[in-house]
Automatic annotation (TrEMBL), chains A, B, C, D:
Polar residues composition bias: residue spans: 1-20
Keyword terms, alphabetized: Copper, Cytoplasm, DNA-binding, Metal-binding, Repressor, Transcription, Transcription regulation
Family membership: Belongs to the CsoR family.
Location of this chain's protein in the cell: Cytoplasm
Database matches in InterPro entries: Metal_Tscrpt_repr, Metal_Tscrpt_repr_sf
Record-linked Gene3D superfamilies: Metal-sensitive repressor, helix protomer
Protein name: Transcriptional regulator
Keyword Kinase: no
Entry superkingdom: Bacteria
Entry GO terms, CC: cytoplasm; protein-DNA complex
Length: 120, 120, 120, 120
């Protein structure tokens, strides 16, 4: 991940390539993770259907929620890294004021997403 | 739901019937809810696949987590109601000491399940 | 705790005594726990005042929140145990229908409190 | 807040001044917020002491936890904004590779803090 972030900072075009490459690697991980969660949700349906003991169903719900949160945290980390990199490039090429406003907007948007995750 | 809880208290066999009937009605609701969540998880996979903007994916994750928590809360409510009814019958037929221990064990188990939900 | 719950079921007056005794023991624990959390909140004020590094402040916030949740869970466990005991006595002395309605109301109230804890 | 972020980007010394000014304004808000939470915790002690109904205590716990989370989110927003600004300055003055590594470390640290908040 460090390489991706560093590559994105490079002023040359190769930075974009590195980002895309890193992104695709993550994409497969994300999809694998989400398919596992989908399997857990189908497992929950089976448990309800077979009248499994409530407490055991609740344990499986906790596991699925934990899976979703890990996915959200990884996505958020990538977003912060990427948003940081892009906003930093903007601010150094477009001047401090415009770059600063861009960063502020991105940070506010990310904070609101974190707030939504916390409140669920 | 009140009828189910009250029915479960009846010492006659009809109490079991009332519980089963109420349970089946809930079961359909549970399965419908879980199928909706499964659809949301598949939606997340599509979003990742189509490179949807991170923040929008995080919003969908929050919605899915909220759905799972609502399902857990409904299940927990039914469990508390049912566990209360059963433990109450135990305590009135088997005497206070054994009934009390039964209730204690059930309450501890439920509290641990709530703790797991809180920590995710 | 088992003794308290069992004691509360006893139809004689000694049940009330046992409950009160158990309650007082818990009360001291609760107050001690809350004073520790109060100390943590004052610690947070000192950290902000001394310009402590943000991430270290956030770690302390997590510790305080965890403390509050443990307190809430212990309180909830006692409440479920007590509400179960009282509602069970009601249902055995006042008949199934009224006792069932009483249990339903208590369980709904408790579930709503758990929902509020989950959403924060 | 936008001014603070933008000010921090300025390569001249005035950026530091603007940051400090903005920080002090926030500091008072933080301390006021924390004193309010401290009052809520003392209120909880009074409630326990006066044998207030469990469910009402739990409602107050939810309010205090919500207060702590709002404080954490505001702190996090400032941190992301500040860390972004500082890491951006580093990366533009020290070169992409070192700046990228600096950003990566900061983002990872922030994500771990968010994970701790989510798990409580």
């Amino acid at each position: 991940m460090t390489t991706t972030g560093a590559g994105a900072m490079t002023p040359s075009g190769s930075g974009v390539q590195a980002t895309t490459h890193g992104y695709h690697k993550q994409k497969d991980e994300h999809l694998k993770r989400l398919r596992r969660i989908e399997g857990q949700i189908r497992g929950l349906q089976r448990m309800v259907d077979e009248d499994t003991y409530c407490i055991d169903i609740l344990t499986q719900v906790s596991a699925s929620t934990k899976g979703l949160q890990s996915f959200a945290l990884q996505l958020l980390e990538e977003h912060l890294r990427h948003c940081v990199a892009t906003a930093a490039i903007e601010s150094s090429t477009q001047g401090a004021v415009k770059g600063g406003a861009e960063i502020d907007a991105k940070v506010e948007e990310a904070t609101q997403a974190i707030a939504r995750l916390l409140r669920t």
